[in-house]
Amino acid sequence: MTDTSKQPVVLIVEDDADDFFFISRVLENIKSKFKFDAIWVKDGLEAMDYLLRRGKWENPEKSPLPSLVLLDINMPKKNGLEVLKEMNEHENLKNLITIIFTSSRNELNVVLSYELGANSYIYKSSEIDKLGKKLELLFSYWFGIVELPSHTKEN
In the CATH scheme, what architecture does the domain 12-143 have? Predict the structure, then answer.
């Protein structure tokens, strides 16, 4: 891992190792265009531990506030909707850019995600080329086009 204090951090909340493998392969290709560090947590409980700096994530140098959260919905221990709800309870987390990145096409999940503050809801493609295009567009938008608050930019 590179020095996370100097570039944006993307927190990937994904319980499926195969999905993470595909996402990480795509992100390695995207890193040639966008500078960021990716941190993976395996469920919603670990995501909240990371965001609230609890347990193994207690050290702020190992758990910098992410610029972008890629959040799966269907996970053990705490699902993505529960994570969104809990993030809203913390002033320093409720405005984090949070993208629901899931295989769920459930319309209720889409509605609830936006009601709970998600910035986008994106269906994960199982084809690596399509997944790559979606993530590249996503990163281009959030790290190349929009103006982000200072807490999400490079320090």
Answer: 3-Layer(aba) Sandwich (3.40)
